[in-house]
Specification:
Helix content: over 70%
Order of helices and strands: HHHHH
Number of helices: 5
Radius of gyration: 17 Å
Oligomer: single chain
Distance between the termini: 21 Å
Shape: elongated
Number of strands: 0
């Protein structure tokens, strides 16, 4: 659907962008976590999380549309040595599971946090729940990021 990517593989430009975006997203998430946990700068933490959530929501929606219009992930990974193998398939399944779980946790946590925390945001009875699901979402996002390069390799390079 989209033009060929800029990394010289079988991936289209959007897949290249989404894959490389983890290099930017993960440090920003860790910085945002540090802002809230260490610096107690809850307002900046909130702004960063909202910005990331909206930005990633738009990118993921376009990415999902691209996948649908291209026939799905198994269609666009055709042509490589790992096409149809358990290695590629399980890499797709594991990455997808972490991505879906991250999306569900993050979207729910952002919505609930906007409702439960005041303006400016400050710790309250929801803080413990927020912290637990925030950490859980960080772990799932990191795992989505860690599984992205192998998926890219098996699906678009090899």
């Amino acid at each position: 659907m989209f033009p060929a990517g800029f990394l010289g593989t079988r991936a289209d430009v959007l897949i290249d962008i989404v894959t490389l975006s983890f290099i930017v997203i993960l440090p920003i998430l860790i910085w945002s976590w540090w802002l809230a946990g260490t610096r107690k700068d809850y307002s900046t933490h909130r702004r960063v999380q909202l910005w990331l959530g909206i930005s990633l929501g738009i990118v993921v929606a376009i990415f999902e549309w691209d996948l649908k219009m291209s026939g799905g992930i198994f269609e666009i990974t055709k042509g490589g040595v790992y096409e149809g193998t358990a290695v590629l398939n399980w890499t797709i399944y594991i990455h997808t599971a972490f991505s879906i779980l991250t999306t569900l946790i993050w979207a729910t946590l952002i919505i609930l946090s906007l409702i439960k925390f005041g303006r400016p945001p400050k710790p309250n009875s929801f803080s413990r729940t927020h912290r637990f699901f925030g950490r859980t979402g960080m772990v799932t996002m990191i795992m989505a990021g860690v599984t992205s390069p192998p998926l890219y390799y098996f699906g678009f390079i090899a």
